């Protein structure tokens, strides 16, 4: 079995309800949350473009790193 390392990108947007004494405190809470906390506590959606492959590395390949176009051309043989 071969190993494939994907560098991917997906745009997310979300909404979150936070309790705070004022707007400044609410914003500070939002900006200091970890990504995991933000995802756990938010309602979110991905954009309509879906997931995008940025780069692919394969352990058994003669090519070090491929961009999405190269990957699409060669993935059937790798």
Characterization of the model:
The protein is α+β, with helices and mostly antiparallel strands and 78 residues long. It has one domain. Helices cover 31% and strands 29% of the residues. The protein has three helices and five strands; from the N terminus they run ββααβββα. The strands form two sheets. The chain has a three-stranded antiparallel β-sheet with strand order 1-4-5. The longest helix is centred in the middle third of the chain and has 10 residues. The protein is elongated and about 60 Å long.
Q: SSE layout and pairings?
A:
Blueprint: E1 4-9, E2 12-15, H1 23-32, H2 35-41, E3 43-46, E4 52-58, E5 66-67, H3 68-74
Antiparallel strand pairs: 1-4, 2-3, 4-5
How is this structure best summarized?
The protein has 78 residues and is of the alpha+beta class. The chain has helices at 23-32, 35-41, 68-74; strands at residues 4-9, 12-15, 43-46, 52-58, 66-67. It is elongated and about 60 Å long.
> Number of helical segments?
3
Largest sheet, described in full? 3 strands, antiparallel
Mean pLDDT: 86
**Structure classification:** alpha+beta
- Over all CA atoms, what is the radius of gyration? 19 Å
The stretches of 5 or more residues where confidence is low (pLDDT under 50) are none
Number of strands: 5
Q: Quick one: overall form?
A: elongated
Give the helix proportion (percent range). 25-40%
Beta-strand percentage?
A: 25-35%
Order of helices and strands: EEHHEEEH
| Order of adjacent strands in the largest pleated sheet | 1-4-5
What count of structural domains?
1
N→C terminal distance: 11 Å
